[in-house]
Structure to design on (341 residues):
């Protein structure tokens, strides 16, 4: 859990919008941002890492926040928590604008773990939790429940410096959960966990959402987000390139088309170029295979035209099928193939 400063960061310099702009129109949104932007430095050295971000995180959802390394995920989460002041733009949490007067009350309803696992290594897990309990005026029952949820009860009397990275991650999640938050913001919560630990965290996040807790979680483990999140947000170079359900995300990318033909000897470079002229932006991206072609990014009307051209060319077509695609395939397509490290 990130320790929040007692003072509020400097407010944005631009004029504040009306209440209607910062208060979500629907009560079912836990997080709303409007044109959220963060620039570090000034003049020629200015570097904008988040640009005009409009997030809409439904209450009670697991919101998967995806993006390559350096795409702005952690910076965004820090702005949501008031740890960084936006250069411009606004944040609303649980229907209230995040500002100097509301921050303390909103953060009291929010749990978080950003970047590094927390905890003093020379203290035990239980002692670390007691510090959190004193800071947040929590009961022992709340502390015990949080430790039990992440399966650290039997290890609570060990020094944190003897914990594995995965155990430190679980301690951080326990600290975030101890106040029983309405909103939980986690940056890479499964980092360092073994497969069994990842599965446990996945079930925990789904269970918390089932109890009405809104969970916003960033991760580079696309398969894990795919199995956990109900809503996805994809960030690339500081911009939101997609926000919505998994089904809607899959629709954003056109699966590769496999063309199976016995006339592969006739598929010369010149023939392929002629067949696909005007249909695909980069004919060089087409792959010739032992049984035909793999054509990326061809929409349905383009498929119909390709079939017409194949027949006109005198080539037999034995099969046309869309190749199955994974969430990672779609992600790579949306982010330009820069990866998710």
């Amino acid at each position: 859990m990130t320790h929040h400063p007692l003072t509020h960061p400097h407010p944005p310099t631009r004029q504040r919008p009306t209440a209607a702009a910062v208060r979500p129109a629907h009560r079912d949104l836990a997080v709303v941002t409007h044109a959220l932007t963060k620039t570090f430095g000034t003049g020629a050295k200015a570097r904008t890492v988040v640009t005009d971000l409009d997030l809409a995180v439904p209450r009670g959802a697991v919101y998967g926040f995806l993006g390559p390394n350096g795409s702005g995920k952690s910076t965004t989460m820090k702005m949501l928590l008031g740890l960084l002041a936006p250069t411009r733009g606004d944040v609303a949490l649980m229907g209230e604008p995040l500002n100097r007067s509301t921050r303390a009350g909103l953060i009291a309803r929010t749990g978080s773990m950003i970047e590094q696992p927390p905890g003093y290594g020379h203290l035990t897990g239980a002692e670390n939790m007691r510090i959190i309990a004193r800071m947040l005026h929590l009961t022992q029952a709340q502390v015990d429940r949080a430790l039990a949820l992440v399966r650290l009860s039997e290890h609570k009397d060990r020094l944190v410096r003897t914990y594995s990275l995965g155990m430190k991650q679980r301690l951080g999640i326990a600290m975030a959960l101890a106040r029983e938050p309405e909103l939980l913001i986690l940056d890479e919560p499964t980092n360092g966990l073994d497969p069994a630990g990842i599965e446990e965290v996945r079930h925990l996040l789904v269970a918390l959402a089932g109890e009405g807790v809104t969970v916003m979680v960033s991760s580079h483990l696309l398969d894990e987000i795919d199995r956990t999140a109900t809503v996805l947000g994809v960030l690339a170079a500081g911009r939101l390139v997609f926000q919505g359900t998994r089904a809607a995300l899959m629709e954003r990318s056109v699966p590769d088309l496999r063309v199976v033909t016995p006339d592969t000897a006739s598929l010369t470079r010149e023939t392929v170029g002629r067949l696909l002229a005007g249909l695909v932006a980069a004919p060089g991206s087409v792959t010739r295979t032992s049984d035909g072609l793999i054509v990326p990014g061809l929409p349905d009307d383009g498929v119909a035209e390709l079939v017409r051209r194949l027949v006109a060319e005198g080539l037999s077509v034995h099969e046309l099928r869309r190749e199955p695609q994974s969430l990672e395939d779609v992600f790579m397509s949306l982010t330009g193939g820069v990866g998710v490290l």
Remarks:
- Residues 195-210 form the longest helix (16 residues).
- The chain is about 35% helix and 20% strand.
- The domain at 255-324 is CATH 3.30.70 (Alpha-Beta Plaits).
